[in-house]
C-alpha cells in the first residue's frame, strides 16, 4: 500500500502549524493554530474513511483496494467539495464538524453482520482514538500555550465528530452499525430517510435545544478523556480570530 503524497502534505501542513504555534509572535502563533486545526481536521477525515476501508478490506471486501481507499488519498473519498472542502468550511466558520467523505463498501462481500457493524463503527472510533491521543499528548508533554490550545481544540473537534457520527440516524455511521440487524421494513425506511435525516439533525442542533444537549454530551465525553477545556476555548478563540 502506497500512502498518498496529498495525505502526507496534509500531515506536513499540520506539523508546520505545530511549529508556528510555539512562536511568541502572535501572528505566527495564530497562523499555526489555524494550520493545526484545518490541516489536522483534513487529516482526520482521511483517517476516518481509511478506518472504514481497512476494516472492510479485512472483512472480505477487496474492492476498496482497487478504488484507492487504502491510500489515504482524500480525492478518492467521493466528491472533494462535499467530502473535504465543505466540512473544512464548516469548521472554519465555527460550526459543527460535518461527517465528511464516504467510502462505498460492497456489503455483499462482507462475511458477517458483525463485520458490517464494525465497518461502520471504525470511522467514528478513529475520531475518538485521535481525540484521546491528542488530549494525552497535551496533558503529558510540556508545550507552548499556543500549541496546547491548537491541539486541544483539534482534540475537541474529534470528540464532537465521534458523538455526531455515532448517533443512530440514517446517513450517519451509528445507523450503519445497527442497520444489518434491522428488519427489512425498517431498512427500507432508513434508506428513504438517508438523504434528509442528517440535514434535519443538523438543523435541530443549530436551531433548537437539541444543540445544547449535543454539546453537553460532547463536553462531558471530552472531560472524561482528559481534555483541557480552558486550552480548548483558547484554541477556539485563536482559530476564529476573524469573528
From TrEMBL:
The keyword ATP-binding does not apply. It comes from the Bacteria. The chain crosses the membrane at residues 81-105, 117-141, 153-178, 199-222. Residues 1-21 form the signal peptide. It is a multi-pass membrane protein. Its cofactor is Zn(2+). It is found in: Cell membrane. GO terms for molecular function: peptidase activity. Keywords: Cell membrane, Hydrolase, Membrane, Metal-binding, Metalloprotease, Protease, Signal, Transmembrane, Transmembrane helix, Zinc. PROSITE patterns: PROKAR_LIPOPROTEIN. Its main location: membrane. GO terms for biological process: proteolysis. The keyword Transmembrane applies. Belongs to the peptidase M50B family. This is Site-2 protease family protein. It comes from Saccharopolyspora taberi.
